[in-house]
Amino acid sequence: MLKFLSRRFRGGIHPESYKNLTNAQGIDQHFWPRNVFLSLQLRNGAMLMPLVKPGDTVSRGQLVAKGRNDMVAPIHAPVNGVVTGITQHFSSHPAKLKCDTIIIRANGDRRWGESHKPQNYLSLDAEEIIARVRDAGIVGLGGAGFPTVAKIQFARKGGAHTLVINGGECEPYLTCDDVAMQQYAAEVIAGVKLLLKASGTHKALIGVEDNKPAALEQLRLAAAESDEIEVHAAPSIYPMGSERHLIKYLTGAVVPAGGHAGMLGILVHNIATARAVYQAVRFQRPLVSRVITVSGKGIAAPRNVEVPIGTPVSELLEYCGGVSDSTARLLFGGPMMGQVISSPYIPIDKTVGGILALTEEEVRPRPQSECIRCGQCVRACPMGLMPFQMAAYARLSDFSKTEALGVGHCLSCGACSYVCPSALPLVQYFQFAKGSINANRLKAQRSATAKQLNEERVQRLAKEAEAKAAAKAAKAAARKRPARATAQESES
Amino acid sequence: MIDFEPKSGPFAHTSNSSNRIMYTVVLTLLPAALMGVYQFGLASLQTLLVCSVVAIIAEYICLKLLGRATSACLDGSALLTGLLLAMSLPATVPMWLAAFGSVFAIVVGKQIYGGLGQNLFNPAMLARVMLLICFPVEMTTWAVPTPIDFSGNQVTVPQGWLQFDGVTAATSLSGLQHEPVSLAAQFFGSIGGSLGETSALLILLGGLVLLYRRIIHWAIPVSFIAGLCVPAAIAALIAPESFASPLSQLLSGGAMLGAFYIATDLVTSPTSVRGQLIYGAMCGLLIWLIRSFGNYPEGVAFAVLMVNAASPLIDHYLRPSIFGSKSAVEKS
Amino acid sequence: MIATVIFFVLLGAVLGAALGYASQVFKVESNPLVDSIEAIMPGGQCGQCGVAGCRQAAEAMVRGELNPNACPLGGQSLTQQIADMLGVSVSMSDDDIEWVAHIQEAQCSGCGRCYKACPFDAIVGAAKQMHTVISDVCTGCKLCTESCPQGCLTMVQVAPDTRTWFWPKPQASAA
Asked: So where does [4Fe-4S] cluster 2 get bound (chain A) (predicted)?
């Protein structure tokens, strides 16, 4: 116990959790959408190619779009129905950006298009597990949305030894992982075993915050016979669910600043991802739905719902009894790192773990005032940064100073904004600084390319001019030469 | 109404606000201030009111001239500055002097730096030092306690309590060699001295409330007291006849007020824990040096101003180390 | 006395000669700062800064006649780099509008004039064929706009997409 005390990280906050709104009920599996909208551009900008055309009939689980490589997870039809169009529609982006979207009108049929007999999945070898995870289009369900297959393959190549399963779920309100662990602990543990085998790691550490005693108990029961899987309770401090901080707590190792977990031989996956892996490998079911927490005081009947990917927010809210008039904000994800839902017609993508309707009382909008240098943000920052100084430089658009202070290490966890008594939009200052630094870097790259192109062009033009001059000279010479040649001939 | 405008998170906040912090500090200061009134009579009440009200008016005028929202003059920061200044003055200073100090604190100590959060020096201490240098006679004429007597069957209000110009004499530190003052008297506050600095007990209680509410961090008071008491203890062991004991150092003058309210001023102190430890220790040590070897009997204001000047430097060099990095960030 | 005077006169003469010689031997043809600034400029010679070319612009910046933020192609990153080199501070404009050339392909006659005008080879197309802009390479220098006889080549603002959008700077407090 003392060993663990020393592994706590510095900083962090204790926001009110509101988890009791939804953590005692089972997962509601009765929801079915009327239409689904599948964005063909992922949050990181990668594009997918549609494999269907308007008018096609699709069945649940059918592959409908794929990317160029393993770094882009394919998309499957989450429902049975008809493709009604492939047009521009809102993506889940906060700035209401649109992208090409496959729209499917669903019928009430919930059967899978193809059903595979459950197999003795534990006898599959690593290659086969990886292939099934790839074909199922699984991405990290914790929020980052990185393709799971790519992570497994990096870990294999890098010789990772430890698998960390993140059941932190430190965001207030969210309980989708909690209830999944309570209800499907055996599936989670089976998924962990498959991940261990696929990634070549020897040991799995499951970290769950100690405010989920029921989930911890179920996991411990399910993992009782597996020596290679350990279940640990972690203290409930936001952001315990951050990869770096959970790793520090579970293993004592510290991910180097600017580095990633793979450098320590550690592979991190989310609880929900482990369960999706189990579904994909055992039943060959692609990732077409996920458990989502619908909560907040603006929701009439908060609960966890199994939702087909692509469902528009409005349909899900309607299903949960609609939102009250006092609702001030709709959010994807938790209140700390979640994103504003800028239109109710935005579809839910694979990375969304929660939809919150927060009332003014919960959001507590406050007037912004001057920074009083109270240092609360410095003590709250789990990364050891000086938020108030970085924000001051970002405000002046002095990005080199902001970067020198370490804005690149910021997790955007929001702990600083949470504690700030002056209600400064610290996180937005850092997002702005990070975005600007990135844009400047791209611009610098582009100008370097442009410069090179220009130099090449100048050289080419010079060469062309030279060649032209040479050709001219040759022509001129040729015009003279025949005369001279005949003269010479006549002389000889 | 649902707000769909994109805004960056988080969408959860503490109920804490800058105003609330300021007013909490003011509230915790009040017992010690009222103790001053009990001790020194109506003259001290007058000083308290003049300093506070003038500070708020000066803030209002500055904000108006700068074209900022004038409602900010009631954010508690100007009131706090005025109150702290009043508490560090002798109870019987003339009204004009208190008012002048207050205006100086707000205008020169705070607003010319750019207002709230921008000032380098503690405005109240800046004003106090200015007054001490410009008006040494008025500033070292200390009131003699003429407390209301609650001990008998009837409450007796002494004549001096009601006088606006009070009864004056020298304070403990300058009179150290002449007559010993009991530590108990210093602890409870039945001694002469600045208006609000006499009762160490009430200041300690107020400070503990601030610590409990996490408005101030333990690092500054602890290192401040250590920085003052450790050298004092060593010196008192070596030469007890020429140096005051550590406890007497701590309880006399403005040391307690300095440790909990003045050195911990949020704006002018460093933010990282390591920085605060160094800052507090430097401050305590300087106070001891000034008291023991300097020309002035009291050094809290001077010491605080000196470490205030070092505070940006401390913040620059003693950043917390970034999670996962071997050392602190590359110094820019 | 006289010896001292002679000594110092001689010393002065020797040192002066040495300095004069050194200035001849180590003569710098041009200010190295100009070279290093020119090296980081886009090199399109587009003249949008109001000076004939990039070299001249670099010279003007070193002389202090041209603001480091004068080059619209380089954007903030270039401005910052130049300001750092010159040791001056500049105010950054927050709206760094990016332009890119766009050809309305239906109207393009394939005359090839825009192709010749582009200093960065960002326009492709053969003679008598439709031309198009490689927008990833286009710097927005606007040199091609005048060249199109059809008037179908225009500059458009780059709309942010998922990759390039980022949070704007928060509004300063009302107080």
From this structure: 381, 410, 413, 416
Where b means 16+ CB within 10 Å and e means fewer, A196-208 reads bbbbbbeebbbbb
pTM flag (> 0.95): no
Nearest to A435 among C42, C84, C167 (CB): C167
Name the residue among C167, C174, C175 with its Cβ closest to that of B8.
C167
Model confidence at C174, in pLDDT bands (50, 70, 90)? very low
Query: Do residues A32 and A110 make contact, with C-beta atoms less than 8 angstroms apart?
Result: yes
State which of A25-29, A367-371, C9-13 shows the largest mean pLDDT: C9-13
**A446 and C165: CB-CB below 8 Å?**
no
pLDDT, position B136: 86
To the question of domain A371-492 being in CATH 3.40.50, the answer is no
SS3 A210: coil
Would you say C152 and C84 are in contact if contact means Cβ atoms under 8 Å apart? no
Range 36-75 of B in CB contact (< 8 A) with C:
68-69, 71-72
The predicted pLDDT at position A489 comes to 52
Query: Poorest-confidence range of A39-48, A122-131, B158-167?
Result: B158-167
Residue C14 CB: number of other CB atoms within 10 A? Answer: 10
Cis peptide bond upstream of A239, omega within 30: yes
Q: How many CA atoms lie within 13 A of A74 on its CB side?
A: 20
Q: Which residues of chain B have pLDDT under 50?
A: 170-179, 327-332
Residues 6+ apart with CB under 8 A from A285: A61, A112, A136, A279
Superfamily in which the A2-290 domain is placed by CATH: NADH-ubiquinone oxidoreductase 51kDa subunit (3.40.50.11540)
pLDDT tens profile B12-24: 888 888 899 999 9
H/E run at residue A86: strand A81-90
ipTM: 0.84
Which of B4, B11, B116, B308 should be substituted to probe chain A, the one whose Cβ sees the most A Cβ atoms within 10 Å?
Answer: B11
> Cα C162 to the chain's mean position, in Å?
28
Is the pLDDT assigned to residue A8 strictly greater than 60?
Answer: yes
Domains of chain C: 13-94 (1.10.15.40), 99-157 (3.30.70.20)
Tell me the per-residue pLDDT of A264-297, one tens digit each, with 9 for 90 and over. Answer: 999 999 999 999 999 999 988 999 999 999 999 9
The pLDDT tens digits of the residues spanning A215-266 come to 999 999 999 988 899 999 999 998 998 999 999 999 988 899 888 888 899 9
Interface of A with C (CB under 8 A): 41-45, 91, 93, 95, 97, 99, 367-370, 394-395, 397, 399-400, 425, 428-429, 431-432, 434-436, 438-444, 446-447, 449-451, 453-457
Neighbours of chain B (3+ CB pairs under 8 A): A, C
- CA distance to partner chain C, nearest, from residue A368 (Å): 6
Q: Please give the sequence-ordered ranges of beta strands (E in DSSP) within C70-110, or none if there are none.
A: 99-103
Percent of chain A surpassing pLDDT 70:
96
Q: What are the extents of the domains in chain A?
A: 2-290, 291-363, 371-492
User: Does the annotation flag A420 for ligand binding?
Assistant: yes
CATH class entry, domain A291-363 = alpha beta
Q: Do A400 and C80 touch (CB under 8 A)?
A: yes
Do the domains A291-363 and A371-492 sit in the same CATH topology, yes or no?
no
- What pLDDT is attached to residue A245? 92
Residues of chain A positioned with their CB less than 8 A from the CB of C162: 41-45, 91, 93, 97, 99
Report pLDDT for A484.
56
DSSP state letter for A349: -
Residues whose CB falls within 8 Å of the CB of residue A211, separated by 6 or more in sequence, listed in order: A17, A19, A236
Question: Does the beta-carbon distance from C175 to B8 stay under 8 Å?
Answer: no
**DSSP helix, strand, coil percent of chain A (3-state; round to 5):** 40, 20, 40
